[in-house]
Amino acid sequence: MGDSISMDFPHSGNWTEAQTQLAFYFYCQTPFGQLHQHNPKVVELAAWIGRTPSALAMKCCNFASLDPAMAARGVSGLGNAGKLVQKVWDDFHSNWDLLAGQCEAYLAALRDAQGLQVPEEAADIAAGEDFTGEVRLALVAQRRKQSFFRQAVLSGYRNRCCITGISDARLLVASHIVPWREDAKIRLHPGNGLCLSALHDRAFDQYLFALSDDCRVLLSEQMRQTSDVFLRQTFWPIEDKQIELPERFQPELAFIRRHREQMLIAE
């Protein structure tokens, strides 16, 4: 593994695909304002992958130049991204689950090479006595993927519910637009996520409201006709309200429409 790590993460020369993938993985989970060479997390990852903090920060900004959500905010990122950056962007968008898993495998190998411990949330599962080795590894991998999705979605929405503005992390959920179980290739796509309060997440999951093509709240007939006073007070005022859009990876129109169609079928 040591030789493989050296080949995938050289300290000089052109960026490798593995280095570029981890730069994008980091970009997805980090607020744009923190993509600079003085961020301790940038410094740490740069050391792991054999690049300077400034080079890693610049590579992340190359990805920002490809992100339509950034362009919509008037953020141009760094142009001249290059073919490899475009390839990694396209590869992730073709199969987020596969590429996120690949990045986690790289990170695990880098941690192992440096004698570092497994991240805390994965260690909690790994310490369980009721699982076989295979099952334990699968659970660790799934937990890490879920952590990636949550961090990517919440950081994109500035750690605030896109409807209510709630910012207490204990009450926030990275809600899937197209449910996790329905499409493995997009279940980790940040554009398939909304940052919602726990209550709004549950209502969205139950198709009690959906979004229009321009990201306005559409209440279901069930919600419009509810006799529950709390639900009326909570949900009726937000009808036709436009959600706060994220700084990265705006909700994909195709996913919004899939969810809305399911709401109409459920009515």
Task: Describe what you observe in this structure.
The chain is mainly alpha-helical and 267 residues long. It folds into two domains: 2-116, no CATH class; 158-266, no CATH class. The chain has helices at residues 2-8, 17-29, 40-49, 53-64, 68-72, 83-94, 96-113, 120-126, 133-156, 198-205, 221-224, 229-235, 253-266, and strands at 172-176, 193-197, 209-211, 217-219. The strands form two sheets. A two-stranded antiparallel sheet has the order 1-2. Strands 3-4 form a two-stranded antiparallel sheet. A hairpin with a 5-residue loop joins strand 3 (209-211) and strand 4 (217-219). Helix 2 (17-29) crosses helix 6 (83-94) and helix 6 (83-94) crosses helix 7.
What can be said about this structure in brief?
With 267 residues, the chain is mainly α.
> Which outline best applies?
elongated
Number of strands: 4
Average pLDDT rating: 88
How is the biggest beta sheet arranged?
2 strands, antiparallel
In whole angstroms, the N-to-C terminal distance is 54 Å
What's the total helix number? 13
Counting helices, strands and paired strands, the structural category is mainly alpha
Q: Order of strands side by side in the largest beta sheet? A: 1-2
